Amino acid sequence: MAGLEQHGDGGHRRRVVLFSLPFHGHLNPMLKLAALLHARGLGVTVLHTCFNAPDPARHPELAFVPIHETLPDEATSPDSDILRKLLALNAACEAAFRAALASLLRGGRRDVACAVVDGQCYAAMGAAGELGVPALALRTDSAAAFRNMLAGPQLRDAGYVPIKEEQLDEPVPGLEPLRVRDLIRVDGRDTDEHCSFVASVAGAVRASVSGIVINTFEAIEAAELAKIQRELSLPAFAVGPLHLLLGQPPPVEQSLHEPDRGCLAWLDARPPRSVLYVSLGSLARVDRGAFEEMAWGLAGSGVPFLWVVRPGSVAGGAAGAGAGAAADEAPPLPDGFEEEVRDRGKIVKWAPQREVLAHAAIGAFWTHCGWNSTLESICEGVPMLVQPCFADQMVTARYVTHEWGVGLEVGEEVVERGMVAKAVREAMAGGGGARMRERAHRLQMQASAAATSSAMDGLVRFILSL
């Protein structure tokens, strides 16, 4: 296995082994961390699945080793929900990860300082520990979301899970400002299955992990980070925002979709802060009804917009495109919509998001509140409209709107065109939007300051001490 390494150095530096979930929002933070560790003198080997494998040519300084997993349909199908994917990936990757890591250890056990494992890969955390390799968990969500996951078993014991309609607006003691409706969940999934996954993650962290690495920064989550360290008696390293630490210009990112760079020229022709950017990320899906309400809400707002309509982003989205619709086709838009917005709307399958958010024409970001998207918006000082779809996005949306005050809800639980139009106009041109923009600018300054901190150096010192 060690002979399969590509583009790696052959020296005898202490080496870190990294393993990520094979999704855009997990791979990119892991690869950024890998590059930063390498820049600080560590050897880096990236173990990865063959499914959605990273491109070694984009990261010539790193070594890449495939684990040669065999994945069931639940892990790869666009029709399976995130919980089903996570459970299937953990089950299918455990043995393959263990074998790949064991092979590396046989090739030079003293060189491997630790394994940095995706924080949702409880099976890999346990396997690293069983092989005698210290494991660090990389959380690609927020510190607040991680605290919610750690509290999962206690929340069930206290009667907050399964979530009950009559409790939705109750505050959750110890997890303020979260209400019951903001707790991590995947709608439509069996409660026992969800609780089992959360308990597995929390249990693996408590039993197998030597430290936590979180892509966040102290200025926005100092209290949450302190609570994590107290609850786990483990160091928690806030090393974000990772994309700022890497500097400019932005490095080439791993992407599962080819970005349409023509949208940047379209933005160039627009006035400053006049365009709403809309994207629900690389995994989130909405039903056809919500998609149509989004579309007509945008039309009714009168605001110029750039909308990412990703293939697979609408459940049953290809239905109107014919039975032979290709998997890479975007879902069909409502009849008459394109004519209605022709002069002020641009629709793409994927966008170079960091460059879009940094563009002067962008006035606000309608987001699913994935943590990478949220951090990128904060780092550019862009206020948000929030439409969380599942899991940690619920937690992040609450912090964006009520803790940091840089976002508005598109609609709580239900997306309706009239509410959408009203929220868009308020964010772009209303008094609430102006106040959010001021607060977003302050957070932007704090994020920039965090990118020059010594948090990453502290992590490297800890790794070398293991």
TrEMBL record:
Keywords: Transferase. GO terms for molecular function: quercetin 3-O-glucosyltransferase activity; quercetin 7-O-glucosyltransferase activity. InterPro entries: UDP_glucos_trans. It comes from the Eukaryota. Gene3D superfamilies: Glycogen Phosphorylase B (3.40.50.2000). Belongs to the UDP-glycosyltransferase family. This is Glycosyltransferase. The lineage of its organism: Eukaryota, Viridiplantae, Streptophyta, Embryophyta, Tracheophyta.
